[in-house]
Amino acid sequence: MLVEVPKRAEVVGTLKIWDVQRIIKLDADEIGAIAIKNIKESDIKEVVSRMVIVIPIKNERIHLLEGVLKAIPYNCPVIIVSNSLRDSQDIFKTEVDVVSHFHNLTSHPLYIIHQKDPAVAEAFREVNYLEILDGDFVRDGKAEGMLIGTIIAKYLKKDYIGFIDADNYIPGAINEYVKDYAVGFSMAKSPYSMIRIHWRHKPKIIEERLYFKKWGRVSEVTNRYLNALISSITRFETEIIKTGNAGEHAMSMKLAEIMAYSTGYSIEPYHYIYLLEEFGENGEPKYPEAASEGVEIYQIETLNPHLHEEKGDEHVQQMLVDSLATIYHSKLVTEEIKKKILEEIEKEPEKRLILPPIRDMDVDKFVKVLEESSETFLKFEKTEGSS
Ligand code: GDD
Questions:
Q1: What is the third-level CATH fold of 2-380?
Q2: Fewer CB in 10 Å around end: N or C, the chain?
Q3: CB 181 within 8 A of CB 160
């Protein structure tokens, strides 16, 4: 694939945030241009084979899940963490049927689990990770589902973990996202790296015609405040962040396991806040090995547009409040930024719960509990002889 070389980066302490790099071509032979990097197909395949994809899902159209599964490159196992209905209309059962059928057809390695399975809560109690629980169950929330997936990915001993939403209408775009993750990891110099997808366009129907919007409503605002926060730290105005709400992102497992996670839809902007707090200019290095290697964030602009299920104004407003809450409550925030956020959302946002890093969690013990007690944890692995 051809990708623009990173032109510049914002460096804050030991955190390096690279400016957006556009994908120029989805495949290519050797070319000798200066401003363009050629990542070989074989390198992409190699990275993909060391990656796992986590799909959080809650009551999505089943055809969309099918499309997502078909689009993920073959060598990359998939972990689906579902929070879908399980009452009279058992959507989770339909998801299991689709996954099982897809595996029978393709032998693609797949894992599926339900977030509200009592055995998942039991596994968290067993490893003494109680922050994610609400009574007898794991709390609702996309971030909570992503964390369950991250633990299983760590158990599978993969080097990279990528996230893909289940409500995407364009399988070809998903296939590109996974390869874009691999492009980013191929460029990364630090073993502590994150790749965030910046969609080229998000098509909408406006006045009965397709309109290719550049910015989502929430991301435009989130990016503005994250950039204001960085500018206030470095004292140099910046617009470096273009991926504050990147639902599609990937991390090296080394970074994923030292990250703290904000709950619900605040997870993605909080990545930036957490990394600025831990690795920014005044961060105490809680993880000295990561601080000495440095942490890198790459932002990659896709070739494909992003077309996903629209979930209404209330949902968008909630995402905005969730996102700004992480900035508002950061220990790095200035009074000036807080004041502007209050003007934006009109009332003080509640502090979101933070889930601590999983680095010291006994993931083997966690999965053992699932294997012994869970009714929903299903593994569809490659069988002997399948290539
Ligand atoms: N396991 C699990 N648990 N999955 C969930 C839950 C939950 O409680 N809630 C939502 N999901 C799944 C959805 O089914 C979908 O696959 C994915 O999480 C994203 O949720 P959506 O509700 O569809 O969010 P969105 O499409 O409006 O926003 C997405 O894009 C934003 C960037 O524009 C999300 O990824 C946001 O986090 C992101 O900021």
A1: Spore Coat Polysaccharide Biosynthesis Protein SpsA; Chain A (3.90.550)
A2: C
A3: yes
Write out pLDDT tens, residues 167-224.
999 999 999 999 999 999 999 999 999 999 998 787 877 778 888 877 777 999 999 9
Give, for ligand 1, the residue of 95, 132, 167, 202 to mutate: max count of ligand atoms closer than 8 Å to Cβ: 167
From the CA of 60, how far away is ligand 1's center (Å)?
A: 10
Contact 202, 286 (CB under 8 A): no
- Cα–Cα distance for residue pair 4/25, rounded to 1 Å: 10
CA distance 365 to 378: 17
Residue ranges per domain, the chain?
A: 2-380
Enter the pTM of the model.
0.96
Cα 233 to ligand 1 centroid, rounded to whole Å? 31
Q: Would you state the structure tokens that stand for residue 367, as one six-digit string?
A: 């999965």
| CB under 8 A, 24+ apart: contacts of 235-241 | 238/10, 240/9, 240/10, 240/17, 240/19, 241/17, 241/272, 241/299
Tell which atom from ligand 1 comes closest to the C-alpha of 216: 33
Q: Quick one: which atom of ligand 1 is closest to the CA of 163?
A: 35
Nearest-atom number in ligand 1 for the CA of 141 is 8
